[in-house]
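To start, one record:
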Amino acid sequence: MQKQNPGRYLMAADVGTQSAKVVIFDLEGSIVCQAGQKLRKMDIPAPLLAEHPDDDVWDALASACGAVMTEFKETLQKDPKDIMAVGLCVIRCCRALLKPDGTLAWPLIDWMDKRMNDPYQHLPQYGDVAWVTTSSGYITHRLTGKPKDTCANYIGWWPMDDETCQWKKDPKAFEECNLTSDMLFDVVHPGDILGNVSATAGEKTGLPKGLPVVATAHDKAVEALGAGTLDKGTVLISLGTYICAMVHGREYRPDAQNFWTFQASIPEKYLYECMGVRRGMWTVSWFCDQFGRSIVGEAKAQNVSIEEMFNREAGLVPAGCDGLLTIHDWAPPAHAVYRKGVMLGFDGRHTRAHIYRSILEGIAFTMKNHVDKMMAELETPIERLVITGGGSNSDLIMQIFADMFGVHAGRNQMKGAAAIGCAVNAGMATGAFASYEQAVEKMVKKGSVFIPDAKNHALYDRLNKSVYQKAHTCLDPLLKSLSPIVD
């Protein structure tokens, strides 16, 4: 592991599906300054396709970097030389097709695109493609000019050996992915230095030339590290556009039935992740966009968001929503592309607040069932939940998860745990911390804890076993018939 004399600050660059965030921390985990830039809406050129328009991921990151460096230098009057390194985390499961000069040959293909379910196929419209890499590999090249990437962001159709954390040696593995070795970047471990910010990138981003850029992992693994979920029995629920649950593990488990084994953001360690909810918190945003117009004035008067207004209303609705259940398949899984979202059990009692709460409960029902299967296979009881992401700001969501799982649900002071994970990797690369355990102890600040209500837990358990777990068995035949008619 490469090290240098400790400075005073660590930078995190975290690019998700909807925004780019850049944060500068001190070595005790306090935020010095931060900035963000929303990404543009995804291009949907055809059903089940999803691309980031133009060079939006890079442009958003550059904008966020410029804003945070302006505050750091001009407002706070701090020296950029005191920034030790920047940890880089970019959306996982994307595909970047690059020209020989490292620029995009085609817009970045997002994880929601059906092409990510299959090996790379070259199409004539892609033009001159020299490299096929991940989103993190692309951004690394833009920042450093180096064709390097983290070994821990290759999920899906890549010839990556997750046991050795290197490219596979079997030529058949490359053939199955329609790739050759010269089309792929060199890979390094999380916590290793990928390269240094180039003069060109420095001009575009405002980052100091020569700043070390440090590898992390895929975004969910970085989030797990930044949430501090290292203890056995601690489950992380990540509330993002894709909602998932994870636990840290020590063994490579390729034959697991109820979870995937991914590389962790700790070198040569693993992360176990069960199935999740595609377009999870996106569904909440969709509801607010579609049905929030009537409360805009009230929200402004109280100086809160529309989402918070709905949270307050839904907090008055009893657990179980008086029988209204939401099945979350707004974006169906690859093995059942015919599925669609369903709301079941409407009657005259139900209001917009019931619908909103039902969406939140549907997320929790789904995650409870996936997590239970994973933890049963691991023969590990769930001892507590840590919940991250913007959704964890909601006391209502936190209480629903505590009641659904029947265990304490905690959130940290900083909800964007991936940024902390980036800083931890950057600190390990530059000698700021002696171990990952020490880094987590310094950087992760715990926040509120929500205690389950026994009565609500019993009701959720009954609804889950009697109705929710049987929903797909009953609905799938109908949705299979519906899909070819409307799709």
